[in-house]
Write a structure and sequence with these properties.
Blueprint: H1 5-9, H2 22-30, E1 37-42, E2 45-51, H3 61-67, E3 71-72, H4 78-96, H5 102-113, E4 134-140, E5 143-149, E6 155-157, E7 160-163, H6 167-177, H7 184-198, E8 208-213, E9 220-221, H8 224-231
Antiparallel strand pairs: 1-2, 1-7, 2-8, 3-4, 4-5, 5-6, 8-9
Helix pairs in contact: 6-7
Amino acid sequence: MFLTRSEYDRGVNTFSPEGRLFQVEYAIEAIKLGSTAIGIQTLEGVCLAVEKRITSPLMEPSIVNDHVHLSIQAVQWVSFINTVILVFLQNHWFTYNETMTVESVTQAVSNLALQFGEEDADPGAMSRPFGVALLFGGVDEKGPQLYHMDPSGTFVQCDARAIGSASEGAQSSLQEVYHKSMTLKDAIKSSLTILKQVMEEKLNATNIELATIEPGKTFHMYTKEELEDVIKDI
C-alpha cells in the first residue's frame, strides 16, 4: 500500500511511486519567485544582468551590491555560496597548483546540492534541497563559459540563459536575439533590454546589477554611473 503524497513530502530523499522527489520539485518551483537574472556567453566574455529587488525602503541598495558575485535569486544565500566556492578554489589550488575551470566549480557546487538529507553527510551538507538557481559565468582555458544549475543539482552549459520570476518570457526573448557572433556590447544591451521588458518596475540604475567577465581581465561590476550610461542606449 502506497503512502499519501503528504507522507512522501516528509522525507527530502524519499521517492514517490512515480519516481518523484516532491521536495526537489517544490524547490524548482520556488526559484520562479526569485529576481530575474540573465546570463549571455559571447566570444569576448560573459555578461550577467540581474534584477535587484529592494524589499524595504530602509534597505541600503549598496549593501546588496557589495556581496553579489553570482546570479542568485536569494540574497541570503550569496555569502554562503561565495564562501563555499572560495574553499573549493583554494583546496584545488593547494592540491593541484592550478585554477579550477568554470565547469569544475559548477560541478563542485552541484555535488554539494545533491547532499541534502543524508544522515551521514558532512556538516556542510544541506538538510533540504537548494532553493535557488545559479548562473556561473567565467573565463578559463576554453574561453568564456556560462553554466546554469537548478535546485536538483543538474547543470548544463548555455549560450544564454534566464532564471527567476520572468524567466519564461526572458528566455523566449533570448532565443530571438542571441547569435554566435554576438559581441559583449551587444549582449549587455540585449540583456538589459530584455530585463526592461519583463520587470514590473521601470528599469533604472538602482534596481538592476550588471557584471562582465572578459579574457585577461578581472570580474567587473558596473557602477551606478556606468549603468546609467548603458541604460541611455536602450
